[in-house]
Specification:
Blueprint lengths: L2 H7 L46 E4 L2 E2 L5 E4 L4 E10 L5 E10 L4 E10 L5 E10 L4 E9 L5 E10 L4 E8 L4 E10 L5 E10 L4 E10 L5 E10 L4 E10 L7 E10 L5 E10 L5 E9 L3 H8 L5 H17 L5 H16 L1
Parallel strand pairs: 1-4, 3-5, 4-6, 5-7, 6-8, 7-9, 8-10, 9-11, 10-12, 11-13, 12-14, 13-15, 14-16, 15-17, 16-18
Antiparallel strand pairs: 1-2
Helix pairs in contact: 2-3, 3-4
Amino acid sequence: MTLSAAIRTGDVAQLPGKRDEDWRWTDLRGLIRVLPPASPAFAGEVGEGPFGPAELTIVNGQLRGEASALIVPAGESRTVRLRFVSASAGTSHGVHLGVEVADGASLILLESYEGRAADYVADAVLTVGLGEGASLERIVLTDDDAGAVSVSTAIVTLGFGARLHQTVLAGGAKRQRIETRVNHPGHGAEVRLDGVYLLAGQRHADQTTVVTHEGLGGVTDQLTKGVVRDQARGVFQGRIVVAEGADKTDARMGHHALILSERAEVDAKPELEIYADDVACAHGNTVGALDEDALFYIRQRGVPEAEARALLTEAFVGEVVERIEHEAARAAAAAWVAQRLGG
């Protein structure tokens, strides 16, 4: 059961709900009683995205231009700005995009989800294939409407020696979910999955990842940090599966969150499923408040309390932002964080 299937068929019974274990904190079936009508074609201008002029723009689920897939040939390198824009209020749309990075090729994918209207339902599915020795750095930045339901799912299959580095920056929506599923072959392949969520008001963001190690000698490194305030809700679900025979796997996961008000909520479920013996795997999870001693120290130097809290919060999530390799994307991510905290 998926949002994609529900939009395609118009059947709300296809929506995932709280009885589905992976969706129990992001219940769509209990939220959506009737799906909105299909989004119309949108011919208007949508301006530039957060990363600048885009090579690929998808508006209301329709790709502008002739391409139906993003392909990087063997040995080539590309940087692509990919925008998903929802531009019609009270409507629903979905899209499926294929991404192929051939053997030895590299792609920097600067991906944004932008709400230019209210109360839409949007779904995007990316199927991503990385060839042998290929490289993908994927930076995802969300700016959905507060009343929207927005789901993005990436299904990534790696070749031997491939490298995937991903950072998701989520600002939430009425319901927002960014899901990544990785088929990890081992054999020198490397995965880094990072995330930040900054939530206020009644926004909800869900970052869910599943990495399945299927062969020898794979590496996964994961770090997610979140900050919630007001009545916002953050969800982190990370699962690393080490299959039988995937010896020499090195997999580490960390999730850390700050709750800045009494009515905010964080739900976290880090998981390791290990069916091999010779592995190095660990996970950590912390949820707490700002360090009052550090806050006192900064305020003693004449910094107003609101500014001091923002500085500490920015430093907290800055560890994730600094891991972004692409310089312009790192700057855009830092600006997004500063804007969210300033608000």
